[in-house]
Amino acid sequence: MKIFYGVQGTGNGHITRAREMAKAFAEAGVEVTYLFSGREASRYFDMEIFNAYQVRKGLTFHTRNGDVSYLKTAFETHPIHFVRDIKTLDFSDYDLVLSDFEPVTAWAGRFSNKKVLGIGHQYAFNYPIPREGGDFIAEKVMKYFAPTRQHIGLHWHHFGQPILPPIIAVHEPPERSIPNKIVVYLPFEDPQDVIRMLRPFREHDFFVYMPVRLVSPAEHIKIRPLSREGFQNDLADCAGILSNAGFELVSEALQLGKKIMVKPLHSQMEQISNAAALKQLGYGRIMNELDSKALARWLENPHRIRVTYPNVAKILVRWIWEGMPFIDDDFVEKSWSEVNVLHFN
Fold first, then answer.
1. Residues 240, 158: contact at Cβ < 8 Å?
2. Superkingdom of the source (predicted)?
3. Is residue 250 classed as helix, strand or coil in its secondary structure?
């Protein structure tokens, strides 16, 4: 079996999910060609597992200081380049096309005769799940950004819908965590605003991962460059994580039993809805702005949740290998039957 797999590369969450799928495909002996879009080729890192992957410009959202600008996004879109990228893809040698909300692959598949399957969190929004922050533009973007006729949606809970648990690395939580160690990943916020919020809390050590190089301004604020290995090491033994409301990172934090505080991107329906789902499930706290008072309350509260998820990547690869049979209630229920939720204080 040969598969062409397109992955949205704007954020690191889609790539993290693709890494787990890549491991499962490799174990099953499936040949996969990977394509990434949404950022410059030089800005991808720790990509060895994807071998000789392809890169396209694709489409991406313009963000500034924690806000998504649809107007600037539209101005910076290059439709002629996008159409050219679509036309250059040839799926004739492949048995299946996958898209993790990757627009070039999804649209190229739409105009081909190949079966195209969407896998990702965004496809869960085709069902009635918690959603907030929607408007006409946001709804159209979600619907037409990377459309596929068949899809698998992923979420932290099924909400009574035919969606599956997150695709994340499955491993035991660390034996110990450092009580005052907090990992911070707020790449869409102004770095100086983040530092200003963290500075008063000297009794905590903040490991701040940023896409820009800055000198650590205080002993308790430790600036780190983006690194998959470094981030995973710090995530393993931290007490909690402060991040935007991206799906994959929160999924990892839940799996590891870390306490969670999220600050969703403004005007980004997916992240605002993720925050609403976290609140509804009782899995994490929310700040709508960079708020030192909200941060103080969260730092003082030891309550955390650990959610154990099955190896969904292996489940999906086996399902694909078996010819993608109809997903019935038994398949969904079996996938969720291994999920356990534990509360700690």
1. no
2. Bacteria
3. helix
pLDDT in tens, 30-79: 999 999 998 889 888 889 999 989 999 887 655 565 555 555 555 456 67
Tell how strand 54-56 and strand 31-37 pair up.
parallel
Question: What's the sign of the alpha-carbon dihedral 314, 320, 321, 322?
Answer: positive
3 state DSSP class of 166: coil
User: Number of folded domains in the chain?
Assistant: 2
Euclidean distance between CA atoms 184 and 162, whole angstroms = 33
**Residue 108 phi, psi dihedral angles, 5° rounding:** -65, -40
Is the domain of 58 the same as that of 138?
A: yes
Rounded CA separation 137/52 (Å): 36
Looking at the structure, tell me whether residues 124 and 198 fall in a common domain.
no
Cα(295)–Cα(182) distance, integer angstroms: 11
Domain that holds residue 127: 2-167+310-340
Residue 179: pLDDT band by 50, 70, 90 thresholds? Answer: very high
Say if residue 161 is exposed, middle or buried (CB neighbours under 10 Å; 0-12, 13-18, 19+).
middle
In a 13 Å sphere around the CA of 122, the CA atoms on its Cβ side amount to: 25
Cα 52 to Cα 90, 237, 254, distances in angstroms: 16, 33, 32
CATH of the domain at 222: 3.40.50.2000
Residues in the chain: 345
Distance CA 151, CA 56 (A): 22
